Automatic annotation (TrEMBL):
Name of the gene encoding the protein in the UniProt record: LOC113518470
Secretion signal, residue range per the UniProt entry: none
The protein's name: guanylate kinase
Superkingdom per UniProt: Eukaryota
Keyword annotations from UniProtKB, A to Z: ATP-binding, Kinase, Nucleotide-binding, Transferase
Listed SMART domains: GuKc (SM00072)
The UniProt record lists the keyword Kinase: yes
């Protein structure tokens, strides 16, 4: 059972959509209001990544055992690596009274919808698949086959993100400033200015 607290905020979108950039701006502007839920992964750390800050790095065996014990809210496998959000990671943020922010994929969204977290769901859209491919190539972190898989996954994620009822808001990230302004307005309306009952009533329109 996840400890009760402020309603979590979920950011979802294809790799390269810019959701991480929006998240960083949000946490920088409102450090006392929002806290990031650090996910677990079985992939190795990339250059500059720190354990417990960017991810909780673990082994496949350890993560599968934790999932079997019911310690995770959501988990998924991508390119042979497991990713997931532990109940403890969310509880640690919510205990502080902050809004817990989750950066998860569409499989994670489907799973979190089936919990009692009642999250606010935001989908971040890239301007186009071509622009998404340009951004991913600019990272220069993956070989061609892995990049093609990411693009194929992105197409499926965009289809899911655009289906009515899957998210509270879809933000087109063609420019960061405009996208962040939309995210900030949505959060202000739903997190700061409305009581829990009003927001919960609105959530009934989001399919589970």
């Amino acid at each position: 059972m996840v400890q009760k607290g402020p309603r979590p905020l979920v950011l979802c979108g294809p790799s390269g959509s810019g959701k991480s950039t929006l998240l960083k701006r949000l946490l920088k502007e409102f450090p006392d209001k929002f806290g990031f839920s650090v996910s677990h992964t079985t992939r190795g750390p990339r250059s500059g990544e720190k354990d417990g800050v960017h991810y909780h790095f673990t082994t496949k065996e350890e993560m599968m055992a934790s999932i079997a014990r019911g310690e995770f809210l959501e988990s998924a496998t991508f390119s042979g690596n497991m990713y997931g959000t532990s109940k403890r990671a969310v509880e640690e943020v919510r205990r502080t009274g902050k809004v817990c922010v989750l950066d998860i994929d569409i499989e994670g969204v489907k799973q979190v919808k089936n919990t009692d977290l009642n999250p606010l769901l935001v989908f971040v859209m890239p301007p186009s698949i071509d622009e998404l491919e340009r951004r991913l190539r600019a990272r220069n972190t993956e070989h061609e086959e892995a990049l093609r898989k990411r693009l194929d996954t992105a197409i499926r994620e965009i289809e899911f993100g655009q289906q009515p009822g899957n998210f509270h808001i879809i933000i087109l990230n063609d420019t960061v400033d405009k996208a962040y302004a939309e995210l900030r307005e949505f959060i202000t309306q739903n997190v700061e200015d409305k009581d829990q009952d009003t927001v919960a009533d609105e959530n009934n329109s989001i399919e589970k």
